[in-house]
Amino acid sequence: MPHCTKCGTMVADASAFCPNCGAPSGVAAQSAGAQSGLSENVAGLLCYVFGWLTGLIFFLIDKRPYVRFHAAQSMVIFGALHIVSIVLGRIFVASFFFGGWSGFSVGWLLVSLVNLATLVLWVLLMIKAYQGERFKVPVAGDFAEKLAGK
Description:
The protein is built from five helices and no strands. The chain is mainly alpha-helical. It has two domains: 1-37, no CATH class; 38-148, no CATH class. The longest helix is centred in the middle third of the chain and has 66 residues, at 65-130. It is elongated and about 65 Å long. The relative contact order is 0.13.
């Protein structure tokens, strides 16, 4: 289902105007999709494929609100998880030197939990984006919405 190019609200295929803001749809939405050659749901999915990197690329090249939201959410979530993973890795190495094998097991558990959460979130967000849903992760989604300009 297409989205309004002005406000991002879902618009029925046969609708000539957005029910939320009244902007003309149809021809405007088709021309925006023809620019990149990708439908909104495929572009939204691709925002998550390589984490924050593809989010950054789509944020810079695609101006459709639906795609920009998913790109911003990808940058925020997977950028933060990438930083958390690096910090935990450093702590993990330090805990091994100071705590021995007990520090090793605790560090391994924390890194594994972060990696598992990242994998589950990655798959979930790609599925939701491909289904055309504007799924917001509770804290990061609000920040991503502000970043995307909605």
